[in-house]
Amino acid sequence: QSVLTQPPSASGTPGQRVTISCSGSSFNIGSNYVYWYQHLPGTAPKLLIYRNNQRPSGVPDRFSGSKSGTSASLAISGLRSEDEAVYYCAVWDDSLSGPVVFGGGTKLTVL
Amino acid sequence: QVQLQESGPGLVKPSQTLSLTCTVSGGSISSAIFYWTWIRQPAGKGLEWIGRIYSSGRTNYNPSLKSRVTISIDTSKNQFSLKLNSVTAADTGLYYCAGRSGKYYEGLDSWGQGTLVTVSS
User: What separation in angstroms does the CA of B92 have from each of A46, A65, A87, B115, B119?
Assistant: First the structure.
């Protein structure tokens, strides 16, 4: 069981906005930056969001991240079929679970 | 952006040692701002951070794997390696090497394609 809790699945129709949550504790999300990765089938994971809400170059602004207290969220607006993937949150953990922990991943289905 | 490629046996017997190598191209593994990471995806599960190594050789490991893991670096070959001993079926999965350039702080911005390792007799 992951230290970070994500819903196992999410879904939406093209054009919709979906949000994926990531819940942690004061040892991880509460005291460190959150990163998000997109994992498309058969490919390597890709850095999607860094430091809670920053996008690497080349990542569309349809993707946004936020953090509040011990929880974080990834929002995807204008949903597209190519967004169908597994999304992971990741964060440094200051407890014995660390140094880095991933969420269990959320499988996003575009209906 | 550097490119990474994993290599190593795809089949390991239980109780033996899993050994993988990651070859870095398009940049120097010795760059001080980089560090290099191993991450795995056990069969049917999510991503799990195994550990990291700096060019200096300093390492950090996942506490749950620490007793079985060694990550090393060979700057002359621009490679870093993973050894996981006393493997069981639970260690079966996709193994990725990844790098952090510092451009996106602690974000891992370079990844290998992953290599499947099966633990079976």
Answer: 22, 32, 22, 11, 5
pLDDT at A102: 94
Give the nearest partner residue to B107 out of A2, A39, A47, using CB atoms: A47
Per-run averaged pLDDT (10 residues), chain A, 111 residues: 91 97 94 96 93 97 98 98 96 77 96 94
B112 touches chain A (CB under 8 A): yes
Q: Which of B39, B60, B104 is the closest to A50 by Cβ?
A: B104
Q: How far apart are CA A83 and CA A40, in angstroms?
A: 8
Cis ω before A56 (30° cut-off from 0): no
- Size of the A and B interface in Cβ pairs below 8 Å: 65
Taking the C-alpha atoms of residue B62 and residue B15, their distance in angstroms, rounded to an integer, is: 20
Please tell me the distance from the alpha carbon of residue B38 to that of residue B115, in angstroms, as a whole number.
Answer: 11
User: Taken in order A7, A8, A13, A17, is the CA torsion positive or negative?
Assistant: positive
